[in-house]
Amino acid sequence: MNYFQQLKKYIPVVVLGLASIFFLYDIITDILKNEESFPHLIIEGFIFLATTIILTQEVLRVILLRKDLRLEQGKVVRLSGELNSVIKKDFEEWKLTESEKEVAILLIKGLSMNEIGELRGVKEKSVRQQATSIYAKSKCPNRHELAAKFIEDLLNI
After folding, report:
1. CA torsion angle for 137, 138, 141, 142 (degrees, to 10)?
2. 89 belongs to a structural domain
3. Distance of alpha carbon 60 from alpha carbon 42, whole angstroms
């Protein structure tokens, strides 16, 4: 996100802040000059109060949203770290070779056999043989079951 997009988020707060300052200044000058009627001052006072309340609520909402976002980001980091640990532990239990571990991760990510072969610089047939070995060692009949095993682990964390 560039600088101007970041600034764009603060426009409502700035506008409400400036409106509140303007109405407060106008009320004070009207009172000091004694030029405006009481109903006029009441209306301006009401607008100042409403603008200030809305501004305060908006700032508090943003603060709470940022706090919630930080908490959720922390959860995602923790869960992805825990899932990564579970995957590594299972790969070790299954006694996968380093090549099989790489292929298994790519299978879990949903890449096709051909894509995995191209990515690893091997023939698709080699990837299929490694996948067969992974399925046998993991006791998962196919890539969907393999991926589902880790999604289930993630949901149970």
Report:
1. -110
2. no
3. 27
CB atoms within 10 A of CB 39: 8
Q: How far apart are CA 95 and CA 7, in angstroms?
A: 52
pLDDT tens readout for residues 105-130 = 999 999 999 999 999 999 999 999 99
* Count of CB atoms situated within 10 Å of the CB of 101: 17
Amino acid code (one letter) for 38? F
Res. 104: pLDDT tops 80: yes
- Please return the burial class of 2, using the count of CB atoms within 10 Å of its CB with bins 0-12, 13-18 and 19+: exposed
Q: Are 135 and 107 in contact (CB under 8 A)?
A: no
Question: Domain with 143 in it: what CATH number?
Answer: 1.10.10.10
Range of the domain at 43: 9-77
Residue 84: inside a domain? no
